[in-house]
Amino acid sequence: MATFPLELVAPEKILFSGEIVSVIIPSASGEMQVMAGHAPVIALLQPGIISIDQGGGTSRRLFVRGGLAEVRPDQMAILADHAVPVEELNASALAAEIASAEKTLAAAKTDEQRRNASTMLAQLTRLRDSGLH
Question: Do residues 86 and 132 make contact, with C-beta atoms less than 8 angstroms apart?
Protein backbone atom coordinates (compact mmCIF):
# COMPACT_ATOMS: atom_id res chain seq x y z
CA MET A 1 0.00 0.00 0.00
CA ALA A 2 1.27 3.48 -0.87
CA THR A 3 2.50 5.74 1.92
CA PHE A 4 2.94 9.49 2.24
CA PRO A 5 4.50 11.83 4.83
CA LEU A 6 2.43 13.36 7.62
CA GLU A 7 3.54 16.01 10.05
CA LEU A 8 1.29 16.81 13.01
CA VAL A 9 2.33 19.93 14.91
CA ALA A 10 0.87 21.54 18.03
CA PRO A 11 2.14 24.78 19.58
CA GLU A 12 4.05 22.78 22.19
CA LYS A 13 5.87 20.38 19.85
CA ILE A 14 5.84 18.11 16.83
CA LEU A 15 3.62 15.20 17.84
CA PHE A 16 4.13 13.05 14.75
CA SER A 17 6.36 13.12 11.71
CA GLY A 18 6.64 10.12 9.44
CA GLU A 19 5.32 7.96 6.63
CA ILE A 20 1.74 6.75 6.94
CA VAL A 21 -0.77 4.65 5.01
CA SER A 22 -3.80 6.72 6.00
CA VAL A 23 -5.19 9.13 8.57
CA ILE A 24 -8.73 9.82 9.74
CA ILE A 25 -9.32 13.38 10.90
CA PRO A 26 -12.33 15.04 12.57
CA SER A 27 -13.00 17.74 9.99
CA ALA A 28 -15.67 20.39 10.44
CA SER A 29 -17.75 18.62 7.78
CA GLY A 30 -17.37 15.16 9.37
CA GLU A 31 -14.73 12.45 9.62
CA MET A 32 -12.41 12.41 6.64
CA GLN A 33 -9.95 9.69 5.64
CA VAL A 34 -6.84 10.70 3.71
CA MET A 35 -4.63 8.32 1.75
CA ALA A 36 -1.75 8.80 -0.71
CA GLY A 37 -2.84 10.66 -3.83
CA HIS A 38 -5.76 12.44 -2.14
CA ALA A 39 -7.00 15.57 -3.87
CA PRO A 40 -5.65 18.83 -2.43
CA VAL A 41 -7.83 20.23 0.34
CA ILE A 42 -7.61 22.41 3.41
CA ALA A 43 -9.88 21.22 6.22
CA LEU A 44 -10.83 22.89 9.47
CA LEU A 45 -10.58 20.43 12.37
CA GLN A 46 -13.17 20.11 15.08
CA PRO A 47 -12.46 18.54 18.47
CA GLY A 48 -12.03 14.80 18.16
CA ILE A 49 -9.69 11.90 17.57
CA ILE A 50 -7.06 11.72 14.83
CA SER A 51 -6.32 8.10 13.91
CA ILE A 52 -3.01 7.50 12.11
CA ASP A 53 -2.37 4.17 10.33
CA GLN A 54 1.36 3.69 9.86
CA GLY A 55 0.91 0.29 8.21
CA GLY A 56 2.09 -3.07 9.46
CA GLY A 57 -0.44 -2.98 12.29
CA THR A 58 1.06 0.18 13.81
CA SER A 59 -1.30 3.04 14.59
CA ARG A 60 -1.51 6.15 16.76
CA ARG A 61 -4.49 8.04 18.14
CA LEU A 62 -4.44 11.64 19.31
CA PHE A 63 -7.11 13.88 20.78
CA VAL A 64 -7.17 17.29 19.10
CA ARG A 65 -9.13 20.37 20.20
CA GLY A 66 -9.17 21.87 16.72
CA GLY A 67 -6.85 23.15 14.04
CA LEU A 68 -6.21 22.95 10.33
CA ALA A 69 -5.21 20.15 7.98
CA GLU A 70 -3.55 20.75 4.63
CA VAL A 71 -3.73 17.79 2.26
CA ARG A 72 -1.69 17.43 -0.91
CA PRO A 73 -1.47 14.34 -3.13
CA ASP A 74 2.07 13.60 -1.86
CA GLN A 75 2.03 14.92 1.75
CA MET A 76 -0.10 16.22 4.60
CA ALA A 77 0.34 18.65 7.47
CA ILE A 78 -1.88 19.06 10.52
CA LEU A 79 -1.58 22.22 12.60
CA ALA A 80 -3.41 21.47 15.84
CA ASP A 81 -4.55 24.08 18.35
CA HIS A 82 -3.84 21.51 21.07
CA ALA A 83 -3.26 17.78 20.76
CA VAL A 84 -2.37 14.96 23.11
CA PRO A 85 -1.81 11.24 22.45
CA VAL A 86 -4.83 9.26 23.69
CA GLU A 87 -2.57 7.02 25.80
CA GLU A 88 -1.42 10.09 27.77
CA LEU A 89 -4.99 10.95 28.74
CA ASN A 90 -5.10 9.32 32.15
CA ALA A 91 -8.15 9.82 34.35
CA SER A 92 -6.90 13.05 35.93
CA ALA A 93 -5.72 14.57 32.61
CA LEU A 94 -9.02 13.65 31.01
CA ALA A 95 -10.95 15.15 33.93
CA ALA A 96 -8.94 18.37 33.55
CA GLU A 97 -9.70 18.48 29.79
CA ILE A 98 -13.42 17.94 30.51
CA ALA A 99 -13.42 20.70 33.16
CA SER A 100 -11.73 23.06 30.69
CA ALA A 101 -14.31 22.20 28.01
CA GLU A 102 -17.15 22.83 30.49
CA LYS A 103 -15.70 26.26 31.35
CA THR A 104 -15.31 27.08 27.66
CA LEU A 105 -18.92 26.07 27.02
CA ALA A 106 -20.18 28.17 29.95
CA ALA A 107 -18.24 31.21 28.70
CA ALA A 108 -19.31 30.84 25.04
CA LYS A 109 -20.96 33.97 23.68
CA THR A 110 -21.82 32.95 20.10
CA ASP A 111 -23.59 29.96 18.58
CA GLU A 112 -20.34 28.89 16.92
CA GLN A 113 -18.42 29.02 20.19
CA ARG A 114 -21.17 27.03 21.92
CA ARG A 115 -21.23 24.47 19.11
CA ASN A 116 -17.44 24.03 19.18
CA ALA A 117 -17.30 23.78 22.98
CA SER A 118 -20.22 21.36 23.02
CA THR A 119 -18.53 19.16 20.39
CA MET A 120 -15.29 19.14 22.37
CA LEU A 121 -17.11 18.25 25.59
CA ALA A 122 -19.04 15.46 23.85
CA GLN A 123 -15.83 13.99 22.35
CA LEU A 124 -14.03 14.08 25.70
CA THR A 125 -16.99 12.55 27.53
CA ARG A 126 -17.25 9.81 24.89
CA LEU A 127 -13.52 9.15 25.25
CA ARG A 128 -13.83 8.95 29.06
CA ASP A 129 -16.89 6.69 28.90
CA SER A 130 -15.37 4.34 26.31
CA GLY A 131 -12.36 3.59 28.49
CA LEU A 132 -9.95 4.44 25.62
CA HIS A 133 -7.77 6.52 27.89
Answer: yes
For residue 110, list its beta bridge partners: none
d(CA 86, CA 131): 11
Residues in the chain: 133
pTM score of the predicted model: 0.81
Tell me the pLDDT tens digit for each residue of 1-52: 899 999 999 998 999 999 999 999 999 888 999 999 999 999 999 888 899 9
